[in-house]
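Deliverable D4.2, example record:
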Amino acid sequence: MNALTGHPNGRTVNELATELGVSVSTIKRDLGQFGAAGIEVERMLIDGRAAARLADDRHRSLVSITRRERYTLLATRRMFDVFAGTPLAEDIRSLLEKLAPGTTTQQREEIASDRDCFAYVPEGGIKRYRGKEDVLDAIQTGILKRRVLSYAYKTARGGTKKGYLAPFSMVMFKHGLYVIGRTLHDPSSRMSTDEDIFAVERFTSVDVVRKTSFEVPSDFKLDDKLVSAFELPVGDLKLARRVVVEFTAERATYVRAREWHKHQTLHEQPDGSVRLSFTCINLAPVVSWVLEWGPHALALEPSELVDAVAREIAETNARYQQRERRKHRGAAAT
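Output generated by the structure prediction step:
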């Protein structure tokens, strides 16, 4: 809005996008939301190009925030850097830009210095969402306006599935974006009884189905999906199994210092080691997690987890031994 203030003849959408450093689709979305905020914007053409101007040029940002609040916003922007190129990151940047005209010279100097007072370094790499702007825009529309989505999605095995989805929520999990919702056979049919989870980067196309709506079922509670550091539990909770992992005394302090599962239990052992127990539907991420601890973690339950960890260790060891044998054969040949 501030970029339109003082321009009674209007400005083109492309000009606004360039100045604010966001996409054209973000500008169009923001212009469409001004009406809901009570700000009248006139759509127009300038030299045949889409443009807009404020119907009442008296609107200005008068929001006053403290330095600590600005610091928190800057920290949030840093965390959203993992979503660079998406509407989520652009909206955070746009929010900070909108607040800028109301700041004093001293405040702008504080903002410049505070930018380097917080950093977010994701563990294990980040997913890339460049090129998914339209996908994310449609997903956000579906969630906020309760609209059914039609989608095409790349499966883990490389195939493609198409269908309809009622999106309930978006979740950031392990530095990636996921959509939780229920599928439909067609836009007007009843939703499935169980939730599905979709990785945003695997959507190849998403469109909002016009003149559709849905109600989030009363038995869906997002907090019920946010209980574990290992998975987003969707599906039949009856399939959840009890997991028990024992950690050596050398790593026990680190294990105690974190919450790995909202319903976890810790059992202290006489030798200083600790046993962590929790429930889990999908054991695959737990296998990787146990292996990360090397000799300091020992899977005890369930038997499927014990077998999977042992198999991974055996296969890894076999590869190293095979590599050593090749090295010895090469050395002997020379």
